[in-house]
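Morning!

This is the sequence you dropped in the shared folder:
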Amino acid sequence: MSDFQNDSEQDSDSEKSSELDSELVTAIRLNLVPGIGPRHQRSLLDYFGDPESIFAASLTELERVSGVGPKLARLIHAARTSDNADTEVRTCQQSGYRLLRMSTDEYPENLTEVCDAPLILYCRGQLKPQDNLAVGIVGSRRCTLYGTQQAEKFGRALAMAGITVVSGLARGIDAAAHRGALAGGGRTIAVSATGLNHVYPPEHVELAEQVSQNGAVVCESRLDQQPTSGIFPQRNRIISGLSLGVIIIEANRKSGALHTARHAMEQGREVMAIPGRIDSFASDGCNDLIRDGATLIRNVDDVIEALGPLVEPVQTEEQQEVRSPRELTLSTQQREILDLVTSEPQHLDEIIRAAEIGSSRVLATLTVLEMKRMVKRLPGGFLVRAFN
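The structure's back. Tokens below.
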């Protein structure tokens, strides 16, 4: 092959790599406009429908949107000619970060149910379909040894059960939950408030790397976003939005973890709390949550029971279809027999014939599944799958 051909192919590859997804760039452009937070973004999208229409609007039209005054309208208008978004996308590509745009298949399914979900998620690592089976763990940065031990224990136990652990990469409870999940050999997702180019706190650089290798670090902030007070409460809605439920560990009455609990309630997620000593200031918030109706959690079985059936089945890493987190606690034999029971009534004889083990073991396994409330016996020797 000639040098000319090599140069031509390199030029062609360069041209292809320079081509950017216009919809993605426009979404990033909106995300980079100063002063536009989740509520402004949602108001603009509700009014105009998509980012392209937002940037095509006149100043007068922009000012008609609730909360968008003349100053913000001018900033949006000025951003139309900025090349910041192109630079941001190219930098992400060069750094190996992924940009997940809402309404695409890569975007987390759980998060699509949230009314103020971010239009764009920056992702370092990889999100998988099995991450829809996730539980958030949050709590105090200034935690006691008891809090650290519980966060690590629950992070590890959930990971070993096949549940992804979501937290915020902060000091204290968050870090302990991530480390527990990693120790359990499972997946974990860290929702960062700062941009992916600025790990915060700085001592968690190595932890962030470990998380990205066994899950993902995600955020909605631009790459160079530094830590500021307002962005930390804002990211809490993403922690709860990615999760089926959240566990609060050691939160006092002023803890930011209670914001996550509030978001979870608003999003229809399960709110769980681990109790602390009644005279412990560190657990006042948790104890208040339990008094007000949050589920008291003692072990991972309590968590799995509290989550209940899933709205949609989730595929595990082993390509098993899980319809309730309780199915994760089953043995291989119990799982195989349960898969033979359908949502339509079946006679016991059909299940025994389809099984690859002896009838006595099938009957014993079905009895265990019935005790676990995963199958239900009907008159005439029929059985049906139970989903509650």
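Headline: The longest strand covers residues 120-125.

More detail when I'm at my desk.
O.
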